[in-house]
Amino acid sequence: MFLYFKESDKKEDIVIRNQIKEICQNAIGNSKGHSEKKYYRELINIIDSDTKLISISKTIKSLKNKEDYLQRSSNKMLFSQLHVSGRLDYEKIKETCYIDLIDQEEYDINVILPVRGRDEFVIPCIEHLKKSAENSGAKICITLCEENDKPNHKEKASGLVNYIHIPSENKLMNKSLAHNCGFKYSNKAKYYLFHDIDILVQTSFFEKTILNLKEYSVGALQTFSNRRVLNLSKELTEAIIKLKKSDVDQLHQDSYGIEIPQTGAPGGSIIISKDLFIEVGGYDPEFFYGYSPEDKFFWDKIEAIQPVEFPSIDVDLFHLHHEVMIHKNPKLWEMHSLLDTFNYMSEIEKKLFLKAKRNYLGE
Length: 363
Known about the structure:
By secondary structure, the chain is an alpha/beta fold. The chain is built from 14 helices and 13 strands. Strand 5, helix 7 (154-157) and strand 6 form a beta-alpha-beta unit.
């Protein structure tokens, strides 16, 4: 996972280290508990040394592996050290990518579609998005970002949408890396819609989404209503994808073959302004890959700055049926632990983390 690291500029490195030390020293002064003071002193020692954080992280875990406090302390140091000692080099990654853009124009909305596999979903997803875009009155482009060992969707995308292939030998997809590469290498836009390839939209989707954006003048908006997408059954998915017998525009929550899931979904389809995406440092491929809580982590970073808004005009999205992938990531617990750590961090610590990531993906 830690390929393509770029050494930090020496002056920038010193500035960031000093900023972290200052916050830690203030925290020591404000802390009442001995263990909390000890944590911040340990963090200062790490900042002053050249020791790699990962080895220290493992050492701390081994002291009392079952204690949440030590786990969170370890994770906090990982957050801090990653952006002090090195970061992903997107220029180096770009050299390995195949990039085919339809044009170089700037758009109102650039739709970023991450993909690996899902052969049967690619064209239906794109077709529904394109149909909606054509009826919106806005200038919208679509970028298919394939993170995989081979460019399997290259021919499908050619001339239809932008296409970026990010070579990867990893067994599990890094959706966060695909998102960031889509933002970094494709057309500039006012807003970026990060949308899953297994979700279909209705013709009115973009028209309503643009009205919802204007309603709040928002930086970030979850595009669908009620914090849930509607799940299609296997049979209804097949009727839409293969048999072409069902019209997505006619579906609603009471339609046969639709299941209403629990509310609270953080991902699936979120639209965010260019400036806010840069401010939160984009997604986090350094920490998350495979089936993981990367969407929730992204959401929580945004919420540390401003709220994610919800539609005032109702919008339904439709999730295509496929195999559940939740059990295929052996690091899932550790990734949830990182999410848990971020949510337990103080406001100062969160701002420090976001400050280190700010402009990470900017020009």
